[in-house]
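Risk register update: the risk of archive-format incompatibility is retired. Evidence:
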Amino acid sequence: MRVLQFAKRSVVTVAVVSMSLVGCGGESTPDAPFNPTGTTADLQTIDATFASPTFASFSTFSLMFDGALGGAPIIAASTAALDIQGKTPQGIRAAAVRTAQRLASTLRPSAGMSASSSAHSGPAMAAVPAEVAGKTFEYDVATGSYAAGARTGAPSNGVRFILYAVDPVSYMPVEPLTETGYVDLTDLSAGSTQAARVVVVSGGITYINYIVSASSTSTSGRVSVIGMVTDGAIQATVNLLSTITYTGGLTLSYSLDVPQRDVSIDLTISASNISEPSGTIVINLVMRGPNGTVTMTGEFTETTGTVNVRVNGSAFARVTTDGVTTIITRTDGTPLLDEEYTALQGVFEIQASAFIAFDQMLAPVGAFFSEPQ
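Archived output:
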């Protein structure tokens, strides 16, 4: 029996694995022999894809974009989400509650709207504010915030933010400022769907390129993120979707495809009545690659839970929790090898970190999907 020990990671590293971003390909044979050491190496490669200095700068400065544009983020990035408990079943459940509440408050049609009109409504604001369209924003050390400057080059129906180097330990801006690239945010909204493109460029290389879109009806809403992230060598494609009902249901699904590694990850987390202690979280996670196929399925509430682990289709291990302690054991009762435990812990953390990824991908476009302050 092993008690799960989740080491706290940096913002960028957490986002990385969490961004277990979307996958749709990498369909390796499901009966490839299980190699736990190779599985861990696959996860480390995915992690490294999101650990470039450019991604670090993007993660740090993007939290300031919505403030500069006069809006409130669709998902308020929270340091609490990075807490060590966020990687336990209870932490996942708490993150699901926060995400559902944030999305519901942002996407829910305004009070007083008729059912017929709200069925075609979306988030409150559909476009970048006219007064800042085409502007380039630069960081001001004195104020610790962004302000529009005189530079040109920003998209006419969007804005540009300059990125700067950050300290690899503190993730604070390095002073004096060293410019490293820029982020273009472009409004793509049409009809009842709000949408924006996020493109991050450094040294002439596009490191991040994805589209966020959101829509809602009188009873539910959905937000999607589709695109790619690279460290300049390895590329991961992203396809993340969150669907909510305003009565407490939430489904978060995303995949990760890394063709150069022949690895794909597909994850679905469904929650019902999550505002109640008895509300359940159901997970279904599949990681496929040249080192075997690992599947995790199960459910948990605030005080109980079991996740069954299968390797290449055969029962292999079980993760259980009583609301206080989370343990992992081999299904047949024999102890796990160190390399097996490390690999399974890494796979488990994929779904535990998904909500952090969702926060980080939406943070740059918060003002595009919210009422002006």
